[in-house]
């Protein structure tokens, strides 16, 4: 006998489902069929949705007759094309059982379509054409299925997907880490660390490898929130070698720079581009050696027509860890002029403040780099401010 079930959502809405049990001959097991017929009204009555708003539609459902339905296909057509072009459906179906693959692919479509909360994905699957549309799972079913997916299955999929991307295209990759703040206390990855959002919360770090040209994610991994960027790179290199994705070339930010990481990438044959922090000794020496040579016509980078452009770049061949490396030196003349103008404006402001507030002036750490205040123990108490050899006496 059919029965009604009620599913309360966090937003306060309670959806009403007509639930009926039947015997599946192919799977040889009892199955439940749920159909959303509407939601609960303010006085407890059932407010039927558009599909069952007509009395004849509800009568046909009660008698087991086929009820005509309208299925949205606009988003599905776009997502189907993207799925076919990337080949992700073939990889997912090789790594998961058919029923699980249907739900996972449909979940991916729902998220790509803009479903913010996961519990709304079941409603999207029921309304849109997708792999799980005919037997759309409830939000509880989705939670149970995701909990049953093992880490080994996830690793198998990531390895297959990375190998598939390496086979169909040869491109460069961008590797970076972001943090996700959390109030969760049961997740073993949630720890205190450098919070990029500047929130006073624990966090989980997620590393993501993305194609620079295609902008398609290729690989991800989770790390404890306390782990720094530099300590994750060696493990990533080892996993990429294990997955046999071939030689990769990565783009990283300066947060990954360390002498040990450079050595690990050179030893593994990983091509990389990485900015170097300005306080590195060999980088300072390279800049000093290239200072006069870089600002030459042959090194200028052409910009867009009509825009101010004063960017220069030159490549210097060298060696690191016994291997050849190409070190790129960039010089932005326009930015240098802006910095000089800003510095001189600050010096003038400090000088004016000193002249106006001789007795209460407090020297900052930044202004102290370019000048100093000297008090002489005389009756007039003379104060002197020095900056770039310019002396002002009061």
Q: Tell me about the biggest sheet? A: 5 strands, mixed
Percent of residues in helices comes to 25-40%
- Coarse shape: elongated
Strand percent estimate = 25-35%
State the low-pLDDT regions, or none: 379-394
Rg calc: 32 Å
If you had to describe this structure to a student in words, what would you say it looks like?
The protein is an alpha+beta fold and 394 residues long. It has 3 domains: 146 residues, no CATH class; 122 residues, Alpha-Beta Complex (Transposase Inhibitor Protein From Tn5, Chain A, domain 1), CATH 3.90.350.10; 55 residues, no CATH class. It is built from 11 helices and 14 strands. It has a 5-stranded mixed sheet with strand order 7-6-5-8-9. Strands 1-2-3-4 form a 4-stranded antiparallel sheet, with no helix packed on it. A hairpin with a 7-residue loop joins strand 12 and strand 13. The longest helix has 24 residues. The radius of gyration is 32 Å and the shape is elongated. The C terminus is likely disordered.
Overview features:
11 helices; 25% strand; 3 domains; 35% helix; alpha+beta; 4-stranded antiparallel sheet; 394 residues; 14 strands; Transposase Inhibitor Protein From Tn5, Chain A, domain 1
Give a quick rundown of the structure:
By secondary structure, the protein is α+β, with helices and mostly antiparallel strands. It has eleven helices and 14 strands. It is 35% helix and 25% strand.
Furnish the topology, listing elements before pairings.
Layout lengths: L2 E6 L5 E11 L4 E12 L5 E3 L6 H8 L11 H13 L1 H8 L2 H15 L8 H7 L11 H10 L2 H18 L4 E10 L19 E10 L5 E8 L8 H11 L5 E3 L7 H10 L2 E3 L7 H14 L16 E10 L2 E10 H24 L14 E5 L7 E5 L2 E4 L1
Parallel strand pairs: 5-8, 8-9
Antiparallel strand pairs: 1-2, 2-3, 3-4, 5-6, 6-7, 10-11, 12-13, 13-14
Helix pairs in contact: 3-4, 3-7, 4-5, 8-9
């Amino acid at each position: 006998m059919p029965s009604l079930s009620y599913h309360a959502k966090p937003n306060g809405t309670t959806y009403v489902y007509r639930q009926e049990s039947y015997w599946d001959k192919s799977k040889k097991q009892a199955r439940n069929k749920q159909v959303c017929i509407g939601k609960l009204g303010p006085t407890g009555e059932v407010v039927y949705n558009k599909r069952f708003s007509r009395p004849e539609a509800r009568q046909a459902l009660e008698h087991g007759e086929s009820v005509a339905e309208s299925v949205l296909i606009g988003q599905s057509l776009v997502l189907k094309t993207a799925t076919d072009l990337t080949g992700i459906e073939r990889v997912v179906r090789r790594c998961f059982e058919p029923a699980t693959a249907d739900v996972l692919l449909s979940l991916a479509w729902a998220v790509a379509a803009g479903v913010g909360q996961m519990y709304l994905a079941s409603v999207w699957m029921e309304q849109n054409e997708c792999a799980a549309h005919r037997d759309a799972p409830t939000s509880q079913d989705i939670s149970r299925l995701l909990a049953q997916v093992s880490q080994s299955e996830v690793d198998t999929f990531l390895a297959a997907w990375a190998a598939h991307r390496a086979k169909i295209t040869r491109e460069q990759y961008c590797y970076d880490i972001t943090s996700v703040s959390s109030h969760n206390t049961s997740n073993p990855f949630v720890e205190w660390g450098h919070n990029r959002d500047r929130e006073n919360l624990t966090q989980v770090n997620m590393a993501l490898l993305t194609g620079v040209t295609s902008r398609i994610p290729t690989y991800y991994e989770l790390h404890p929130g306390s782990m720094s960027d530099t300590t994750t790179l060696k493990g990533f290199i080892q996993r990429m070698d294990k997955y046999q994705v071939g030689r990769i070339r990565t783009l990283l930010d300066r947060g990954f720079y360390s002498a040990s990481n450079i050595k690990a990438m050179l030893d593994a044959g990983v091509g990389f581009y990485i900015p170097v922090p300005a306080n590195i000794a060999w980088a300072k020496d390279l800049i000093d050696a290239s200072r006069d040579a870089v600002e030459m016509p042959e090194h200028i980078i052409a910009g867009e027509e009509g825009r101010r452009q004063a960017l220069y770049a030159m490549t210097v061949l060298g060696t690191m860890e016994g291997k050849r490396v190409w070190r790129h030196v960039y010089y932005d003349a326009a930015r240098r002029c802006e910095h000089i103008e800003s510095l001189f404006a600050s010096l003038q402001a400090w000088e004016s403040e000193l002249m106006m507030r001789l007795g209460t002036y407090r020297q900052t750490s930044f202004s102290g780099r370019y000048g100093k205040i000297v008090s002489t123990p005389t009756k007039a108490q003379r104060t002197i401010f020095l900056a770039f050899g310019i002396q002002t006496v009061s």
